[in-house]
Amino acid sequence: MMKQFIARTRIFNEQILHRCDNVRVKGVGLKQVSSASLISQAVLQNMIEARRHPRVKASIPIDWGLTTECARSDRITSFSIGGCFLQTVETVDAWSIIFIRFYLSTTGERIIKGEVKYHLENVGLGVEFIELTDEDKRNFQILVDYYHQP
């Protein structure tokens, strides 16, 4: 199952990278990528291996920002209990801290803190959630299970 996940993730990442001119990856910096080429296989493999939790595809409108005000509105296209991909044309550097407003339970909204791991210009941001409570993790797992249903 993990091999299938890695293969699907590799194909998805390759499809995104074919559409990008500039790719910003944590630990690597800005990489120039022509539309016919890919980021180095080692960097791509590091992005895949860095995921500790399986992701599910989704289309969730959210508010987010560099402060807890979450003044920007965009969409999450995949997520796990460890992070998400935020589809946006905004430019945010790797290692930046952002905040995402979620409605994870019936108790109302929750502002989740995240660290940008990479930025794909004109595509979006790879974000790792940080400082999640045990309740946040349980609620994200419920959401992952919901989106993972056939």
Model description:
The structure is a single chain. The two termini are 16 Å apart. The protein has a six-stranded antiparallel beta barrel. 27% of the residues lie in helices and 40% in strands. Helix 1 crosses helix 2. The chain is built from three helices and eight strands; from the N terminus they run αββαββββββα. It has helices at 2-18, 41-49, 134-148; strands at residues 22-25, 29-32, 56-65, 72-79, 83-87, 97-105, 108-120, 124-130. With 150 residues, it is of the alpha+beta class. The chain has a single domain, classed as Beta Barrel (Thrombin, subunit H), CATH 2.40.10.220.
Task: Outline the fold blueprint.
Blueprint: H1 2-18, E1 22-25, E2 29-32, H2 41-49, E3 56-65, E4 72-79, E5 83-87, E6 97-105, E7 108-120, E8 124-130, H3 134-148
Antiparallel strand pairs: 1-2, 1-7, 3-4, 3-6, 4-5, 5-8, 6-7, 7-8
